[in-house]
Amino acid sequence: MEHPTTPPPTTTASAAPRIMTGTTLCSGMESGGEAGHGRPLYGPSDSKVSPRFSGIRTYARLPHLTGRLAGVDAAIVGIPFDTGGTYRVGARFGPEHIRSASALMRPYHSGSGVAIFDRLSVVDYGDLPVVPGYIEESHRRIAGGLLDVLRAGVIPIDLGGDHSIALPELRALAEVHGKVGLIQLDSHSDTSEAYFDQPHTHGTPIYHAVREGLIEPSRSIQVGLRGPIYSDRDYAIPREMGIEVITGVEAHEMGMAAVAERIAARVADIKVFFSFDIDFIDPAYAPATGTPEIGGFTTWEAQSLLRRLAGINYVGFDVVEVIPAYDVADNTSFVAANIVYEFLALLAQAR
Ligand code: MN
Ligand code: MN
């Protein structure tokens, strides 16, 4: 049977319709060009050439690249795992929603005056393999996947996933870099030894990271702790482990400039992993998260803090605990996409 042919598109323009070539959507190479011309190898599609709502979703319309990371400075890495959640779950869908919300990222960071992708070659590495329901096996595979990225000399920027992924992230980082410093923005310290008599949840990764010797506590700092807690031990434990803690109340009273000074002084010149739990942000701005706490920080406060943290020796980043099913108008994913963009700006400024 013969299929009906598609009628030609109608046009109201007075000029004759023109067929354009060379406009394949989302090649991801439009701003990159050839290597060896002083420009980074990989960059985003140009949204003045193809509209930003078109193409297959990657972070900021970057090329999706796996397995061959030569010529890459930083990689966006999805870690769609949420078996560590103790309350709300669904962070497994965080990476895809953050990617979708990131279509609005433009290439020039107005906060620092840096054309990010003129300085940095960035790709979207896709998602690491996980096994839903099997936390230790997933952690093993996550660490293995990140080792591939790190051994290629690439800085990973990970999209969670619940915060339990910080443990395999830090295992991989420590394997390659030795003990790292930790900057953790979070409502919670995540330093419980166990929940339900189990060692691995999103409330325990930092306890185990310290115990396993993955981070250097004297070069580590947590900011934003707040909300109802089990007891005053919740804040005493990280401090007894040697981590500096600035509670949410203290951070509000100090202001972001003073917080940034304390962070920079704390980590000094050690290699640093930056872990951003989206619940650092107030649920008014980022409601879609596993364990929301009021009294949090505005998106501007987060940007203001991050923009004061250039000049630190970063070796990895993450943004975690985005659970899109609880979102309103994609707000939380949009905040997370912008936090990642601030991370890229910090890296670009160091180039
Ligand atoms: Mn956390
Ligand atoms: Mn938290």
3D structure, described in words:
- The protein contains ten helices and ten strands.
- With 351 residues, the chain is of the alpha/beta class.
- It has one domain (59-349): Arginase, Chain A (3-Layer(aba) Sandwich).
- The strands form two sheets. An eight-stranded parallel beta sheet has the order 4-1-5-10-9-6-7-8, sandwiched between helices.
- Helix 4 (166-177) runs parallel beside helix 5 (205-211) and helix 9 packs parallel to helix 10.
- The longest helix has 19 residues, at 331-349.
- The radius of gyration is 21 Å and the shape is globular.
- The termini are far apart.
- One manganese (II) ion is lined by residues 163, 186, 188, 190, 202, 277.
Residue ranges: pLDDT <50 for 5 or more in a row?
A: 4-15, 20-28, 30-36
Strand order of the largest sheet: 4-1-5-10-9-6-7-8
The biggest sheet amounts to:
8 strands, parallel
Q: Supply the CATH superfamily name.
A: Ureohydrolase domain
- The count of helical stretches stands at 10
**Number of separate strands:** 10
CATH topology: Arginase, Chain A
- Overall morphology: globular
Q: Which hetero ligands occur in this complex?
A: manganese (II) ion
Q: Keyphrases for this structure?
A:
351 residues, alpha/beta, Arginase, Chain A, eight-stranded parallel beta sheet, two-stranded antiparallel ribbon, 10 helices, globular, binds manganese (II) ion
